[in-house]
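FAQ: What does a multi-protein file look like?

Like this. Sequence, then tokens, then the next protein.
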Amino acid sequence: MAQKKLLKITEKIVNRSRKTRQAYLKRMQNYEKKIHRKDLACANLAHAYASIPSHIKDKIKENKGLNFAIISAYNDMLSAHQPLKFFPDIIKKELLIHRAYAQFAGGVPAMCDGITQGYEGMELSLFSRDVIAMSTAIALSHNVFDGAFYLGVCDKIVPGLLIGALSFGYLPSIFVPSGPMTSGISNDEKSKARQLFAEGKISRDQLLESEMKSYHDVGTCTFYGTANSNQMMMEFMGLHLPNSAFVNPNTPLREALVKQAAKHMVTNEVKPLAKLLSEKNIVNAIVGLMATGGSTNHTIHLVAIARAAGIIINWDDFDAISNMTPLLARVYPNGKADVNQFQATGGLGFVIKELLKEGLLHEDVDTIMGKDMHTYTKEPYLINGAIIYQESVDTSKDENILRPVENPFSKDGGVKILDGNIGRAVIKISSVKEEHQMIKAPALVFHSQQEFLESFHKKQLQRDFIAVLPFQGPRSNGMPELHKLTPILGILQDQGFKVALITDGRMSGASGKVPAAIHMSPEALLGGNISKIKNGDEIILDARNGKLEVLIDEKKWMQRKPKKLKNIKNFGCGKELFSGFRTQSSSAETGAMSFGGYFA
């Protein structure tokens, strides 16, 4: 039964995407035919090979050896990306053993949302994805490569790399992650410290000590936000080596996996990315998102990724897949465990095994390992210096963290779509208790996070209300994440008040225990109805039934004019450089892409 539903959803996507998908594949086929290293002019080749050691140059210039691109998001501002510093040399060294070579083709920018949260820099975050995609294209534009390795982990970086890679989809591609940092203090302790600080019960020094015990080493943050959801999706789409997502950096196994990625590329037939990544791979990624309670950001990013491959998905597809996919994992903020505990309990291998068993995943998909998702039920072990794959566990080691399909945390997925007279929005409910999933309360309209925080500190929010923050969408200010609201709303909910949030901005994978209707489309700047809401309007947010409405006479609602926000400040912190991105951006539901029109 589940398999039939999955096939029906996939068939709808295939039919909807037929023209755009065929156009994309034809475009890639044409590029594949006409662009070859051997056909470049001698001066072009000489420039390309000038820095290569002579003994390798001789083989490459005679087209005897394969030459691969390495594109990396390395920087040492981001804990998750610092380990990538050493990966290019590991890859090159392994390739040489197999008479192949790689060139570091280009670096892409990578910013940390955790550092910019609540400040102007966060308004560059969403569109940094498009910059990364373009930077990837620039790196690959030299046309001297037989394939590519992509090194990246965090929020906008992996989607940007993949969108860029799909523009060169005639190349075989492997994505290589760095893994999560080792566990520090529990995410529950970290969250409690933030709430205590917001209430004025601990000092700034105590808060900083707590935060530094949580974010304490190299690797991704250990909560299940967008970065770790990225890694899950890469595995569900078959673009990683199996179960390589959550192996810690700077370990013998992690280094061996980087070597194995290089070896695999030259000793196996890895299909070109355009042919590998199909509608079925995209559907598998959505299933993985729902089964693990992943980041809401992927209701934007995955849409953009799919469109770059000529595949048209929408929020109705997410909703349909959520309704049929059981929630199998509880990882913070959906539970108390971190990703290291999730991995130790059974990890992605167990999740994929359970979903395949119930027909909830397409198993006949192309991956870098071949046409078989069952490979992703196996875990890598380092035995006598070699990677050996063995079956993952059949039974969860802790059912407070990971459960089988027969006993899920919920019968449906963690992300829902809301619809009503305000518009359409996304809500993550996997960590929202059932008694908070339906809220009926008056609206309080705010124009910034700062205005909301000031109202809280003036003790004006001790009541039932639904906070409304319009003009936070991609066209307005780049659609920043609004994490400053999370601790405050959590405090008010703990005090017994009924509270919720509606915004055309983002909350991401850290969406917590308070119901938040986010990514509201159409956004306020495009005349969306969120801008018509006034203080005191009674609103109902019903996550279970997918309902989001202002309770007002329909005629009166239609007569209201959308508000216009004057004097939007889009200067400072480099925001002026992104003005073209904002003015061209598509809606959140269509991927919030600054070049979205080209994929229509």
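And here is the next protein:
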Amino acid sequence: MTSYTARSVFATLPTTTRGQPLVLGGDPKGKNFLYTCGNSVIIRDIENPAIADIYTEHAKPVIVAKYSPSGFYIASGDASGKIRIWDTVNKEHILKNEYQPIGGPIKDLAWSSDSQKIVVGGDGREKFGHVFTADSGNSVGEITGHSKSINSVDFRTQRPFRIVTASEDQSLVFLEGPPFKFSKTLNDHSNFVNAVRFSPDGEIFISGGADGKALIYDGKTADRKGELGPPAHKGGIYGLNFSKDGRQLLTVSGDKTAKIWDVEKCSIVSEFVFGNAVDNMQLGCLWQGNHLLTVSLSGYINYLDVNNPSRPLRIIKGHNKPITAMCVSEDRQTIYTASSDSRIYILFGNSDEVTGKGHTNQVQDINYVSDKLISIGMDDTLRITHNNQFSSDSNNLPSQPQAIDTLPDGTSVIACLNHVVVAQNGMQTYSQQLKYEACSVSIHPGGTTVAVGGQNNKIQLYTLRNGTLSDGKVIPFSGTPLDLKYSPDGAYLAVAGGDRNVAAFRLPEYEEIFKDTFHTARVNCVAWNPSSTRFATGSLDSGAIVWDPAAPRMKNYTIMKNIHRMAQITRIAWISDNTLVTTGQDNNVKVWNIKF
């Protein structure tokens, strides 16, 4: 009986938008931190961020998630205005309650200190914020006084209870309660107010705006007490977070810096400069115990070093866009992934990015051969990467490439939309125009036969000789062969179909030994294990199936259901006969142990 267990996950990075603050959530027990990407909430271990959990129950993109002060629940708010409150103790994250406090995107939320009440702010159609009880959803007051979207909210943790909200109308609103009601408007900013937080003791709160100002107010009366700087930053402030004792404050800005402030003296303690690129803008931050985290526009999560502000302790890199291509190194120790935003990453322990001038559009497929990474993109180019850096040369292809396969000697065959191309070590040497649209390709390990899948529901075989191709046998298929792969021993050809069919053919006669539709939607990808005993397929149905071509019919498959929940599987690969890697539209890379 085949079984499978999750071994590890290379989790997606946060979704970022230029000019929009990003909210990180911290575990009150100090173990985890939270952020959102697409429809998912990502929970990561702050000491070892390779340990991650992913919550995927929202139907719309999630914007903010926060732990309750008790640590037993997380509240997450999405683009439709829904709040889901779910348990952190059980692996299944059982839903406690779901509410619709406003009719539009929720941008921020905060819990009361007793974990009983929640305030949310955002861009509702009828109102911009609401306060309610976590157990019943009953209203505990109204958020009034704003004329535009609320960007940030916070609860005072001590009595007398207060709420402060920050808005795109350039104002702060101070509320007293419960029940909470409008007390005063603060109009000291000259641009959007992006962030506001009470100090841990509730004595003050500080607001940060797009005008670069960080203003200090009394936590009980909202009287203005001072300003950091001034101004605190040369660009807009997108996030701020107090140290546990409240004596210091971390701020992040579009001026590509983060700063630690002495709150009492209103002076800078440390400044962290991240570079000159647009991607170095800082959009969010978290101060949790000894860990100071910031998030760049690139999505990178930076662990700051207070003893060396010039260099972060650690940078978590990876994808925050759908993964479109994957391959493994020849020693099967390294995973390479590429995404729709043209980035390519190397995953082994801590991930890193392939640098240099690369593709300008989505990467369609990648191969790793003889210490070189060969990639094709929707920019109609073929590129080579040496030592994790793009070479300066690119090879223009005659039509948009769809898939590539490469032999150990560096010979590649590229299936383009209207052509099939042969290249040697990244340089095009032969091109043949097609009468059909190609979508997949595989070279037989013997190096003399090439299979190309077409949108015409056929598999065209070619003879590869002296760097040129000649037409051979045509194999009809029931649907579009979206992906196909020869087994490493050359005995089989496995095909993934757009009509849900998965088929296996036995060579040399290409005898069809089975064709089945156990996937419930289009099958996107297929890959063989190293020993050629099994292959796996990944589908639009968010699941994978492991197939054994030598087993009796109806006993030759194991279904891995919903392994990328709410997202299709885009690529699949083996790093050993018992270890499978899957990538998804959810931007995550997951590694699975398979037991046969």
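Q: Is there any per-entry metadata?
A: Some entries carry free-text notes. For the entry above: The chain has a mean pLDDT of 96.
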